Amino acid sequence: MKRVFDFLVSLVGLVVLSPLLLVIILLIKWKMGGPVFYRQLRTGRYGKGFTICKFRSMRIDHDGTTTSVKGESRITPLGARLRKYKLDELPELWNVLIGDMSLVGPRPDVPEFTDRLSGDEKLILELRPGITGPASLKYADEEEILASVPDPQKYTNEVIWPDKVRINLEYYRTRTFLGDFTFILKTIFRNSNTESSAR
């Protein structure tokens, strides 16, 4: 039932949002130049790798880690706006449509992080990774949090990532279809409130 729901919602979402997607594509080409999409290997269900697709929000020639901090120079002004409202993640609807991801689930990590999972933590890999979920909502302002600490990478490794693992493991054990629907609504309304506050 969840897979059918994911397929139908992602298909409708891609169709309905196609004008917005086209506008973002044109803006990226105009303001940033270069590739429109950012692709990266992530760990999916059962530990199988897949290529995630997002709108590019960083300069092409940057050097950096997978940990992003608000205000860093490698993020372009347009990219910062896309990331603020999570618009850079809209292409992930395609990943949902083809079955790599789900609308709700643990965010897909790079192998660097999933290789650290041990014991019961590996149960998380039985789930399709999601666009949103309980850990994503808790750390929706992760870039702002990291901007306020002296060592963002260390804070990610020692505080945020272990907490996300704990939350995702709890989600694995307590997930329901109704709960997933609630996370989707919370994500939509959170982004709507963020946009209203910025006006």
Tally of domains: 1
Quaternary state, please?
single chain
Rg, rounded, reads: 16 Å
Q: Could you describe the largest sheet, including whether it forms a barrel?
A: 2 strands, antiparallel
Counting DSSP E segments of at least 2 residues, the number of strands comes to: 4
Helicity range of the residues?
Answer: 40-55%
Low-confidence stretches: none
Q: What is the helix/strand order?
A: HHEEHHEHEHHHH
Shape: globular
- β-strand percent reads 5-15%
Pairing-aware structural class of the strands and helices? mainly alpha
C-alpha end-to-end distance: 39 Å
How many helical elements? Answer: 9
Mean pLDDT: 91
Can you list the strand order of the major beta sheet? 1-2
How would you portray this structure in words?
There is one protein chain. The protein is mainly alpha-helical. The protein has one domain. It is built from nine helices and four strands. Strands 1-2 form a two-stranded antiparallel ribbon. α5 (111-114) links the parallel β3 (102-104) and β4 (130-132). The mean pLDDT is 91.
Summarize the structure.
The chain is mainly alpha-helical. 52% of the residues lie in helices and 10% in strands.
Characteristic terms for this protein:
199 residues; mainly alpha; two-stranded antiparallel sheet; two-stranded parallel ribbon; 9 helices; 4 strands
Explain the layout of strands and helices.
Elements lengths: L1 H15 L1 H14 L5 E7 L5 E7 L21 H8 L7 H6 L4 E3 L6 H4 L15 E3 L1 H5 L3 H6 L4 H23 L2 H22 L1
Parallel strand pairs: 3-4
Antiparallel strand pairs: 1-2
